[in-house]
Amino acid sequence: MIIFYLLCLLTIIKNGSIVSAYLEMNLPDSKYVFDRELYESVLDEELCVEQIQFIQANRTDLLIEFMDAGIRTPRGVLTGNFKDLGNFYQCLNINEEIPNSVVEGKYCLIDLPLNQTLPVLPELPDGWPEGWPEGWPEGWPEDWPELPWPGTNPRTLKLREKLSQSMKHYYQQIFMTRLIEGANENARSGDTAAFEALNFQLAVCIPKTCTTHGALNALFNTTGDTLINFEERFCRLPDDKAWVAGDYVAITIFSLIGLLVVLSTSYDVYLTHYQTEDPKSAKPFNKLYLAFSVITNTRRLVTYNPVPGAIESLDGIRSFAMMWVILGHTFSSLNASGLLANPLDSFVWMTSLKSIWIMAAPITVDTFFMISGLLLVYTTAGKVSSMKLVKNVHLFYLNRLLRMFPVLAATILLQVSIFGRIADGPFMEPEMGNVHRCRAFWWSTLLYIQNFLNPEHMCIPHTWYLAIDVQLHILSPLVLVFVLSGKRKLAWGALIAAMLAILTASTTYNFVNNFPASAFTFETFEDLQNYMFYYYVNTLTRASPFFVGLIIGYIMHLNRGKQVKLSVIIVTLLWCCAIVIMALAVYSPHPLIQPDWDNQVADNLINSFLRPVWAAAIGWMIFACQHGFGGPINWVLTLSPWKVLGRLSYAMYIVHYPLMFVVNSTAIAPIFFTVQFSLFRFLSDFMLTVIVATLITITIDAPFTIFIKHFMGGGPKKPRAPKVEEKVEIEEKQGEP
């Protein structure tokens, strides 16, 4: 496995272009969310025409219901709303019996290009009858000429210059985003293509026996292609979600876990109320019997005993970082799901100075990379020798993989089955894609190779972080073997050499490939694809904060239990430097996302050095708080509520983004964007994440952690002092996001 990772990490730079190990992967139709055979089986062209003709002639009320649940002109086009999604549930609830058949509703979403070619009226002949359109004049041509109608070309629209420029910049981004999502794949990219490729996304409610083209042809008595050019995006029918193997696996596993939780909790209650002796010491295996007990695991989650040497500020830092991640994803998921009724207003706000606290959120992931590297050294130095690490390197890898596996696997199972079934509505399309990708590529996520193997089809997309973290842990013994040697010069030489090597390699890579410094600014689809796949989720370009963490961890190891003395001037200077660095890191996205930004050298420097210097600033904060130089910052970061959030943070990180898409997919109409609404949405996202993460931690993470420790340790062991056990658990947990 390590050889595979090493091969994947080798990104070849050739003639200024990127050549990588990324494979072209296709999503199989068999893993699709909806039952495509069901859609095909209900189609009947003759019955479709018969039903529509009957409805037109005899059931005006039913015709009105179809029209009422379907197509309308979007409102707020100038604020970016190109969607009208009708009434999803009203359409699917249509079920009326007519002679010889039953009319049932089918909900479809169509893409209606704004750039249309429509038939136009030729010059009117003399003697045109006043009663038109009751009768056609003699000599009227049977074939209308196909000529471009200027009114359908969005490039001819006359808008205020400021509005026009904002729309142009915004829709260029949306156009590229839709290309990544798989829509408009054949459309060309370019400066004006963003306007020309814009579509109305409109709901159409039709009888289930019809195709969208067939229904409109029958409705308007036309033949062949309809007068208006459009493409069907997807259709929905009641109970149309296909059952696949993943559904049965998920139901079986979660049912088994539920049974174990009930039995273990019942046993805990029995020992507590009917046994006089200590439940843990009553039988040698009571700890395993109680592993799934909700009572015991909840008590462990909320109980904390101070331990000498533990880095108390880490829980606060991880909690704030996790809240920042969720806050940023709340804003981004609203846009990514296409929920907003005024996305142009959202875009204008996102590019303003007021939004820097949102636009800078991606930098917080580098906080987790730094903490991971810090704790890797801090928890092993002084406890494990170089030779012991070499002899047990397989256990070193296995421990890291198994510690992350239960929560990740549970979330994948939820995404494969449960999340796709509880989510429904007209905004289901993004969730459809999430389920589809997890059914096809769950295995690459569990192997932590998705950022190299299938970055365009990642199951649980934000788990690219876990993939990079595991890959860095697999490579870390190359440095750790020197750090754990006990020789300071050798340790410092290895750490500095590794840091310089990763900075040199990543800087060279960035300057050769000239990536933009923000995913918010790009000119072509290829630019965005290259940025996301070859920079943003690339181990080489994201590794430097981890190596900064290794250095900070070694510094903290050398000063463990010691009283560090620093002058007030030095402490003040270091705090000023850290604050300035963090402020610049937060501000830097603002100029980068402006339409007129054009400084490739600055982009390359930011891509190469912003993340490691941010990690260094956070590292100083941790060091200062640990050794008495934190002041009020240390007081805030060591408050007791952060202990619980710190223990939940790994599960929160994994489940929060999928939960957002589930909630978004239940919306039935576009939502008007305001900052206030988004903040309230963040609070609901955060609370839901905490609840689900708590359930997963208590019923899955904690039990499997007990079993992993038991079997990796070779069986039951004599009880150790509670403080030592608590210290080991805290240090292991702090190494996770």
From TrEMBL:
Residues 715-737 are annotated as: Disordered. InterPro entries: Acyl_transf_3_dom, Nose-resist-to-fluoxetine_N, O2_lipid_transport_reg. Residues 1-21 form the signal peptide. Keywords: Membrane, Signal, Transmembrane, Transmembrane helix. It comes from the Eukaryota. Residues 45-237 form the Nose resistant-to-fluoxetine protein N-terminal domain. The chain crosses the membrane at residues 242-263, 321-344, 356-380, 401-423, 464-483, 490-512, 532-556, 568-587, 613-637, 657-680, 686-708. Residues 722-737 have a biased composition (Basic and acidic residues). It holds the Pfam family Acyl_transf_3. One of its GO terms (molecular function) is acyltransferase activity, transferring groups other than amino-acyl groups. This is Nose resistant-to-fluoxetine protein N-terminal domain-containing protein.
